């Protein structure tokens, strides 16, 4: 598929596979729906998989506004409605996980299950907001390569970054981040970094929920996922040893297996 105009933005949407059960994938900052390629290759044999690139990121349009998390949620619900999808499974990493929590709490009738990775339900500390905003607003305009140098240790665990056998994969990830539209990603990131605390929403998530994170996550350390798990009744939490913020790339087959198991359990 290609661009869909939804909620005042041109959103890039792709579909893979077929079937009654739909899985919507939402991605992390700096990336696109393509970050789930390895997982979708496994899941699309059983499920209709839909990826949505957030406004301002990936292959979607770059509007001047509308980047608060509530509006990002409206974007995805608009896509689901346009595609005739009533209920779905949600897989979201980082901000995709934050959006999933909000929607699952506010629109429980739409959710078959929820899987969230490397997310945080808490507001970001102001010192972290200032650090990242300075890095993104100024760095991408002046020297994107230096921005990436600062981001890699936050986004990827040391085993992935230092393993010669993973050098090609790391180079691909680096190129994806450098390719971001600097002003657009700065506009998109500011409201995400300044999002509100949503821990009060956690008890209202009622669907089967799988929470995963990397033990070496430098963006949202495991205690953030543990806080989420403590608030959602009956959820399952898994911490991947030796993995950073991006299990989809650092442990792609393991994540695919875990998602298949989670989706199967949710349908049982």
TrEMBL record:
It comes from the Bacteria. Keywords: Hydrolase. Residues 22-251 form the AB hydrolase-1 domain. GO terms for molecular function: hydrolase activity. The keyword Hydrolase applies. It holds the Pfam family Abhydrolase_1. This is Alpha/beta fold hydrolase. Coiled coil: none annotated. Gene3D superfamilies: alpha/beta hydrolase.
């Amino acid at each position: 598929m290609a661009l869909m105009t939804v909620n005042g933005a041109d959103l890039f949407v792709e579909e893979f596979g077929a079937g009654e059960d739909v899985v919507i994938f939402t991605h992390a900052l700096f990336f696109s729906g393509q970050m789930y390629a390895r997982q979708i290759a496994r899941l699309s044999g059983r499920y209709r998989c839909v990826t949505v690139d957030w406004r301002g990121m990936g292959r979607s349009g770059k509007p001047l506004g509308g980047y608060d998390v509530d509006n990002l949620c409206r974007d995805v619900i608009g896509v689901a409605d346009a595609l005739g999808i009533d209920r779905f499974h949600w897989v979201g990493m980082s901000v995709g996980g934050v959006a999933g929590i909000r929607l699952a709490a506010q629109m429980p009738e739409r959710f078959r299950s929820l899987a969230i990775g490397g997310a945080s339900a808490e507001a970001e500390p102001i010192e972290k907001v200032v650090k990242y905003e300075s890095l993104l607003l100024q760095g991408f305009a002046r020297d994107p390569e230096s921005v990436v140098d600062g981001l890699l240790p936050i986004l990827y665990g040391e085993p992935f970054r230092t393993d010669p056998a993973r050098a090609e994969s790391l180079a691909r990830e680096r190129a994806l981040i450098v390719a971001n539209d600097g002003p657009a990603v700065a506009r998109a990131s500011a409201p995400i970094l300044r999002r509100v605390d949503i821990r009060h929403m956690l008890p209202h998530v009622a669907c089967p929920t799988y929470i995963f994170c990397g033990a070496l996550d430098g963006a949202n350390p495991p205690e953030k996922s543990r806080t989420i798990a403590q608030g959602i009744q009956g959820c399952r939490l898994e911490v991947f040893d030796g993995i950073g913020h991006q299990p989809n790339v650092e442990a792609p087959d393991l994540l695919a297996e875990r998602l298949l198991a989670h989706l199967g359990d949710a349908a049982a």
